[in-house]
Amino acid sequence: MSRIGTRLQKMRAEGRKALVAYIVSGDPTPEATLATMHAMVAKGVDIIELGVPFSDPMAEGPVIQKAHERALVHGMSLRGTFELVRKFRESDQETPVALMGYLNPIERMGYKAVAEAAAQAGVDGLLTVDMPPEEAGLFNDELKAVGLDNILLLAPTTTVERAKRITALASGFLYYVSLKGVTGAGHLDVESVRAKLAEFSNLTDVPICVGFGIKDPETARAIADFADGVIVGSALVTKMGDLAHADSNEIADTVAELVGSIRVALDA
To answer: Which of 183, 205, 216, 235 makes the best surface tag, with the fewest CB within 10 Å?
Structure first.
């Protein structure tokens, strides 16, 4: 079992909810990303999700699109992200790290090469936004061969029949997209999310974490009542963008402060 599965299994046994924090690799600089990763762990983040910079991040709203652009200015890439995780692992061998990215860089590098490089760097799982589960079989095999999780998406429009196919492939956790649209958009309908998770939870033992629309302690706590965990992204990336020209430690401390307030709410 991967670090992701082990961490979430332990939290379930303790009756605690997971806090997954998303930031973009290399935003606003690689040094700031690394400092922020460590600062977030110190404030109670359970899993770090690193966005791999891409020139056409179709699932992202303006906030995260700009973060991808800032990271690309520094030449951050899929290989660069592996190196960033490798540096993180020099002092943290325990915190699970998942990468969230797009298919084009993976196709260019090759499924086997990506899986092997990710495992060697200390990555625990990958979520490929634009890879439909119907086409994920070969990549899934390569990830499993090196012990990595294939994290898949569920959405408000996902039918139960399609969810059965998705949950059969997934490991680590399932990412439930709570809103129709891009990251940072729309209003979170808690009762709608509750109803969909009730459907999907009957299909799998894989933990389900909810992302999109969770931006503060209040929304995190509301979702955590019935999800295995919450994923916070745009709210953290906003702070990194606001402080893009600040010292890396200032960026890290500011992001970690928000993370800490959400951790407190989840544990209340």
So the answer is: 205
| CA-based nearest residue to 256, from 62, 52, 11, 23 | 23
Which residue pairs, CB below 8 angstroms and at least 24 apart, start in 242-245? 243/28, 244/28, 244/70, 245/28
pLDDT in tens, 187-218: 678 889 999 999 999 999 999 999 988 999 99
- Residue whose entry in the numeric block shows the structure tokens 């009957």: 202
Question: Which residues lie below 8 Å from residue 94, measured CB to CB, with a gap of 6+?
Answer: 3
Q: How far apart are CA 244 and CA 77, in angstroms?
A: 19
Q: What is the 3-state secondary structure (H, E, C) of 51-105?
A: ECCCCCCCCCCHHHHHHHHHHHHCCCCHHHHHHHHHHHCCCCCCCCEEEEECHHH
For 63-97, write each residue's pLDDT tens digit. 999 999 999 998 999 999 999 999 999 999 999 99
3-state secondary structure of 145: helix
Q: Pull the structure tokens for residue 37.
A: 């990763």
21: left (phi over 0), alpha (psi -120 to 50) or beta: beta
DSSP 151: -
